[in-house]
Amino acid sequence: VEVTGDDPARRRVDEALLTVADGRFGTRGTREEDGTGYDPLVMAAGVYALPDGDTPRPLPGPLWYAVDLDPENTSSERRWLDLRSGVLYRQGAGPSGIRTLRFACLARPTTMVSRVEVAGRLESGDALMVPPSEGDRAGRGTPNGTQVVRVVGQGSIVGAFTTELRDDGGRSVLDRIAVLAADPRARLSTAGLRSQLTVVRHAGIDQLLAEQQQAWDDRWEEAQVSIDGDPELELAVRFALFHLMSSVADDGEAAVGARGLSGTAYAGHVFWDADVFVLPFLAATHPTAARAMLEYRVARLPAAQLRARQLGLAGARFPWESAADGTEATPPTTIGLEGAVQPVRTGELEEHIVADVAWAAWHYASWSGDRRFWSGSGRRLLVETARYWASRVEIDPDGTGHIRGVIGPDEYHEEVDDNAYTNVMARWNLRCGADVLGSPDPEAVRWRDLADRLVDGYDPRTGTYEQFDGFWQLERFDLSGLAVPPVAADVLLGRERLSAVQVIKQADVLMLHHLVPDEVVEASLVPNLDAYLPLTAHGSSLSPAIHASLLARAGRPEQALAWLDLAARLDLDDHTGTTAGGLHLATMGGVWQALAFGFLGLRPHTEALGLHPQALPDGWDGLEVRLRFHGHRVVLHHRHDHVDVDGEGRVPLIVAGRPARHLRSPVRLRRRADGWTPEDPR
Ligand code: IFM
Questions:
Q1: Burial class (CB in 10 A: 0-12, 13-18, 19+), 476
Q2: Which of 235, 340, 517, 550 is the most exposed place for a label (fewest CB within 10 A)?
Q3: Do residues 270 and 320 touch, judged by C-beta distance below 8 A?
Q4: Residue 359: C-alpha distances to residues 200, 273, 387, 475 (Å)
Q5: Does the annotation mark 348 as catalytic?
Q6: Please, what is the average pLDDT of the chain?
Q7: Which of 248, 432, 274 is nearest to 357 (CA)?
């Protein structure tokens, strides 16, 4: 992915696009010498500064790559991010002929490498480790000749580096290896850092570069996606996958903020974006990373239990926005367009996050077959979230169950009753929790009964779910007269007006068809797509890719492709004008889901991989997706009239149809009038 020149209007966007990260630390693609007018950032996953007002914000780390260079003429220089190796290159066009490379070692996370090469002389003192502008919270020193910088907030980040300067035929080459460490809760010592530095210095840049290439080769081998016949989309998809892989650690706990490690928008907080949008790609391609994401939730279960108790409820109430300690991190207010202070009610009311966390645990366990997780901390997540809903559901005198006063995924309508998404996800959570507890358990019996009583707004006459109680009574509004979606309808119409009309921010009812297709009425996808798509502003970046996935499943490939194109290029083209604040990781996860869950119709069943291939867009020659199911490698190649399922081992498959066929890979499925049929078993 290449950027040419230095367009001041695109600068911050380009910095986000050119981020290099290793799952623990991210470094935006700011140049070595860039200062004022740019937005440089080194960011550590899940590490925050002291709360600024009510909100913890990411603690900026030391700018380990900075070099004291004369400002370069950047108007026609080239920078490119090599997605195959995770290396950011720069080739200047000015007299110094500057060339640089930079990467975050995937093979040795927390180790960073840079090389700067210019005509003329550099001094080793030109290599800087610049503390972020955090005043007295940052310190620097040079114990034993190693430059060390420490930044302290709620947590802390320390960095140390070593440099090597040489002359290469009149050109100075400045190599630098830096190591960083972070702790979300404590002040770190630098002792471990120095020994790590000794080891990586001994390895040297060339070996680190070779390891980097190998580590990325291995990751792509597991996760590659190819779209034959549409190279532009293929590159955009790979760009998304690259950043998903870069943004999530694969051991310990992975706090995955809405913008990953590429920017500070949404204050680095963890939303359902992580559990529902990002996690599925990792569960299917690099399960240890998905597991680390769940460990983040598991470690914050006590905080969620405490919140439920404080609300007079049982179980666990996860925060809508989560930071280091697992308490609610949503800012209570924001400044609106006219400068007025507006309340933010999502932290109080967007409760579906509880079921979203449960769904992530179930989904990961189903894809990976990780039984230890499922019977240990996964079980605890499922049970405590179900317990929450059991205490939250109100039973009316007529025996029906209700969840009142919530915000659903459509945040344009606040404090609504019986939001279909929340109720159906709660119902799914109660049933799944009951399955985990087992039948003779009286609590499980009660949960099943509550689940059966919960209303879901389904109308069998129309085949649609009412998004919340009273939604169909709201004024009908012609969105097409306002602007072409995606559009921030709240900005154009104002919150008050929006709350009174049938305009929705993002997939809400339709998220059910996407996440829990067995929990909604069969064949209700099309009526709900037809009902809700015209009302959807796509004011959230989470929306387009999910619609692409559902349109593919509804057999409308060209319409699906239009939304997929938009989602895949959302950051590359800065469609929402917000990429400067960081990449939209949820959208990127949604892009993969549109291909895997949409066009290939994949879904995990307890013991088998579900497969329901859909029609591909005419312009594609084929779609190849690689993944793992229950530890076995699977390669799916869809070519319009047939699908090959290969890989290692004999993976059990359930191929959709009436009746569904139980098969094992490797197999070629041929499209016939009566559905997908195995061809000459191999
Ligand atoms: O989680 C999303 C939400 O669904 C819409 N507003 C932005 C959040 C963070 O991406």
A1: exposed
A2: 340
A3: no
A4: 40, 12, 15, 34
A5: no
A6: 94
A7: 274
The gap between the terminal CA atoms of the chain, to the nearest Å, is 40
DSSP string, 468-533: STTGGGSBP--GGGT-SSS--HHHHH-HHHHHTBS-BSS-SHHHHHHH-GGGS-TT-HHHHHHHHG
Q: Which residues pair with 527 in a beta bridge?
A: none
Per-residue pLDDT tens over the stretch 260-305 = 999 999 999 999 999 999 999 999 999 999 999 999 999 999 999 9
Contacts of 314 (CB under 8 A, 6+ apart): 308, 387, 388, 390, 391
Alpha-carbon gap, residue 81 to 246, rounded angstroms: 13
- Amino acid occupying residue 681: P
- 223 exposed, middle or buried (CB, 10 Å; 0-12, 13-18, 19+)? buried
Please, are residues 242 and 285 in contact by the beta-carbon 8 Å criterion?
no
Residue nearest atom 9 in ligand 1 by C-alpha distance: 258
Question: Strand 225-228 to strand 171-183: parallel, antiparallel, or no bridges (unpaired)?
Answer: unpaired
Pocket of ligand 1 (CB under 6 A): 258, 266, 271-273, 409, 411, 540, 542, 586
> Is 324's pLDDT higher than 70?
yes
Euclidean distance between CA atoms 77 and 73, whole angstroms? 8
Ligand 1 centre to CA of 490 (Å) is: 14
What residues does 2 pair with on adjacent strands?
Answer: 80
pTM of the model: 0.97
Q: Do the beta carbons of residue 47 and residue 155 sit within 8 Å?
A: yes
**Distance in Å, CA 113 to ligand 1 centroid:** 33
